[in-house]
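Technical annex B. To support the medicinal chemistry partners, we prepared a structural model of the target in complex with thiamine diphosphate, based solely on the information shown next.
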Amino acid sequence: MADTNFSNDQMLKLYESMLRIRKVEEQLAKDSKEGNIPGAVHLYIGQEAVAVGVCSQLNDKDWIASTHRGHGHFLAKGGETRLLMAEVYGRDTGICRGRGGSMHVADFSKGIIGANGIVGGGISITTGAGLASKLTNDGSVAVAFFGDGAANQGVLAEALNISTLWQLPVIFVCENNGFSEFSPTNTVTAGNIVDRAKPYGTACETVDGNDVIAVWQCAERAKLRASRGDGPTLIEAHTYRQRGHVEAEASFLSKNYRDSQEIEGWVSKDPITLFEKRIVDAGQAKIEDLQVISRAMEAEVNEAVEFAEKSPYPDPGGNEQQYMFT
Amino acid sequence: MIQAINEALDGEMQRDKKLILFGEDVEISLFGDTKGLVDKYGTDRIRNTPISETVMSGMAVGAAAAGFNVVCHMMFGNFMYTGFDSIANQASKLRYMTAGQISLPIVYMSVFGGGRSAAAQHSDAMHPLFMNLGGLKVVTPSSPMDAAGLLRASIRDPNPVIYLQAAGRGGELGEVPDEEFIVELGKAAVLRNGEDLTIVAIGAMVRPALRSVDFQKTEGVSIELIDPRTLVPLDKEMIFKSVRKTGRLIIVDEARDTCSAASHIAALCAEECFSALKAPIKRVTVNDIAIPYSPPLEKNVLPNEKRINNTVSEILKFA
Ligand SMILES: Cc1ncc(C[n+]2csc(CCOP(=O)(O)OP(=O)(O)O)c2C)c(N)n1
C-alpha cells in the first residue's frame, strides 16, 4: 500500500467521494432490478478508487472523458448526485434533460465531457481536449478513462502516437477490470496494455486500482508531466468489476463467465473497505466518523431519488429539434 | 425470431465448411443468435474478437477475398459506424475496382433501431447509409420466417450483405420455417391485400403498420401492406404495381427522414407512378434528431400506429 502523509481531512474527502459513488450505484442496482429506470446501467462498484484517485487531482478546468460505465467518473469530478439520478430516471431535470441517460451523463461546466456509448469513443475526444489545453496554455490537462476492452480499439494507438508527438497534456487511464463484456481480458488482449505506450516513447505506469492513495499519487505524477509540457502518460490501473457487465445480465446470458470465488476474492480487496481499515488503523478517524459520512451519503442519495421521482419527464410536445443545432 | 436466426446460422455452418463467424462475445452470445454454435463448430469457425470494429470489418473483406464465407457480427448497428471504413471504402467497392476479380461473400449482421431507451448511440436505423454505397445488399427481416430465409440467402449470396435485425423484436413469435426455407433477396412480401392505399413498412415498422392496416379495415379503408424485406435489391415492380392499383402511398421507415429509405421509395414512385397518384406520397419517419433516452421523448420520435393512422386520414382527404 502506498505511503501517505495526507491530512485527516484529505483522507475523509477521498472516502466520502468513493462512498458517494458506491451508494449511488447500489441504489441504481436496486432501481434497475425493480424497473424504476428506463434503460440499462453499467455499474462501477469495485472500481471507485480509480475515478476518485485521479479526479481528486483535477479541478473544473481539467477535462475528463468517460465510458459506458461512467457514473463514478461523473461524481468524482464533481457532477451532482441529484442531476445524475434524474438523468438516469429519464427526467427533465437531469443533467442532460433526459436526452442522454446513463451512458451519456456529461457536465461540461465541470470539465466532464461525458460518458460514452461507444467503446473507445472518449479516447480521441480527450486528445482533442488536450490539444486545446496545450494551445490555451492554462495548465489544464485532459484525462481519458477507458476499459481494458477499449484498449483494443485502434484509436488508442493513434492517440498515443499523436499526443506523444505533439506533447499534449493528456492522461490515458486504462481501468483493467478483468473483463471486456463477458470475455476475460486475456482471451481478447495480447500482451500488457501498459506496454502499448513503449513504442511511442509515452510515459507509462501500472497502479493498484483498488488503492486510492496509490492512484492519487500516480495521477499526480502524470499531471505534473502533462502540465510541465512533457506530454501524455498511459496508466493501467488493475481493478475488478464486482457486478455484472450490465445489470440484469443474468436474465439473458445462457451461462456463467466467471466463478463466484473469483468475485469473492476481489470483494475482500474492495477499495472502500481497504481504505476504511487504513484510515482507522492509522488513527485518522474513528469508525463512528466514517459512519457519519456513510449516513450523509445515504441521505444525499435518498434526496436525489426523491428529486428524480418528483421531477417531470421531458415534454414530448416541445420542439423536437431543440439541441440539434446551436 | 432469435431462435430462427440461430437455427439458420447453425444450418449454414453445417452446410458450408468454409463459413466462419466472428464478433464480440459471439461465443456466449448477447442476443442469443449465435448461442451454442462455438460448442458445435469450435473456435476456428466461431470466435470472439477483441473490441476492434475497424479491423473486424476489414478482416471480413480479406478473409472473403481469400476464399472464406464470412459472417461478421457487429452487435449494435451503431458499431458499424466504428467499423465503417472497411465497409464503405473496401467491401462495397473492391470487386468493382478490380474488374470483378473477386467476390466478397460477407454478411455484416447487427440489430438496429430504437424503442428500448438505449439512447442515441445504440438506437440508430442506419440502413440508408448502406443503401447509398451501391455495392452492398441490405436486408431487413421483420418476421422469424423471413429472418431465417433471408439469412440463408444472405450467407449464400456471393456479395457483401448488411443484415439488420430489428432490435426489440428478438422475442417475436411466429412460425418457425423448415431447414431449407429460403427467401430470395429482392422479393417483397404483400402482407395484406387492399385497394385504397399502399403502405410500405420496413423492418420493425411492419408491426405498427399491420396494426394500423387491420384497424383501418374496421373503418372501411382497404390498405395493401408491403414489406420490401430487402432494400437493396429493392422489389420496385411489386411496389409500383400496388401503387398503380391504389393510387396512394405511405412509407413507414425508422430511419431519420432526410435521405431515408422512405425518401428513396417515394422518389421512385413519384417518377414511375405519377399518373396513377391520387394524393401526395407521405413518409412516416424519424425526425432528423438523435434518438433520445427518456421514454416519452423516444416514443414521440419513433413512428407508431397512431402516426400511421393520422397519415392515412390525411391522405384520404385528397379526393
Ligand atoms: C464501438 C463499440 N463496440 C462494442 C460495444 C459494446 N460494448 C459495450 S461495453 C463493452 C465492453 C467494454 O469493455 P471495457 O472497455 O473493458 O470496459 P468495462 O465494460 O470492462 O468497463 C462492449 C463490447 C460498444 N458499446 N461500442
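Notes passed to the chemistry partners:
The beta strands of chain A are 63-65, 112-114, 142-147, 170-176, 179-180, 183-184, 203-208, 233-238.
Residues 8 and 283 of chain A are 9 Å apart (CA to CA).
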